[in-house]
Amino acid sequence: MDYVEHRMAHEAAREAASSALLTPLNLILASVIAYTLYASFIRTAPPAALHRGPPPVVFKTYTPRTLLPLNGTHDTPVLLAVRGRVFDVSRGRNFYGPGGPYANFAGRDASRGLACGSFDEDMLTKDLDGPLDALDGLGKDELEALQGWEERFLEKYDVIGKLVSQKEFDSSNGTSGAGSD
């Protein structure tokens, strides 16, 4: 009997040890270790789309004529210029795109209109092939208002180009009367 009792005691101790290993805490720890090993050694590459950032911005030179069609119609980007800087305001399409409260500035030099707080057509450049608006006649308050707008645009939107007159563009490219880009 001694052998049988010894064998039964050994089996009871073994069962107690195996049930002690299968506690909820031990199962959780084993799962964490298994996941960590899986993630460390069998990790798959994330989809390529997650590695792509925004498309690269190409800095371009625009003239009033080449900027004009980029007003958000026909799925074009929404661009506008302030003091010779061309901003991509497409993220603000609800404001600057078709139907937005500032839509008349899209595709245009918005400097004078923003400075004066006016949406009137006479605030926009009419002669697309003439000189750019030198902002003559603006007072100190209007220039400060324009600076505030410019700072707001610089914080929110990318500068993607510069606005030059057609004459300046032609002379820098050695052409006479051709459009930009």
From TrEMBL:
InterPro entries, alphabetized: Cyt_B5-like_heme/steroid-bd, Cyt_B5-like_heme/steroid_sf, MAPR/NEUFC/NENF-like
GO function term, MF aspect, one: heme binding
Principal subcellular localisation of the protein: endoplasmic reticulum
Swiss-Prot/TrEMBL keywords: Endoplasmic reticulum, Heme, Iron, Membrane, Metal-binding, Transmembrane, Transmembrane helix
Residue ranges of domain Cytochrome b5 heme-binding in the record: 62-164
One CC-aspect GO term: endoplasmic reticulum
Superkingdom classification of source: Eukaryota
Subcellular location(s) per record: Endoplasmic reticulum
Keyword Coiled coil: no
A Pfam short name: Cyt-b5
UniProt cross-references to SUPFAM superfamilies, sorted A to Z: Cytochrome b5-like heme/steroid binding domain
TM ranges: 20-42
The family this protein is said to belong to: Belongs to the cytochrome b5 family. MAPR subfamily.
Name used for this protein in its record: Damage response protein 1
Organism of provenance: Tolypocladium paradoxum
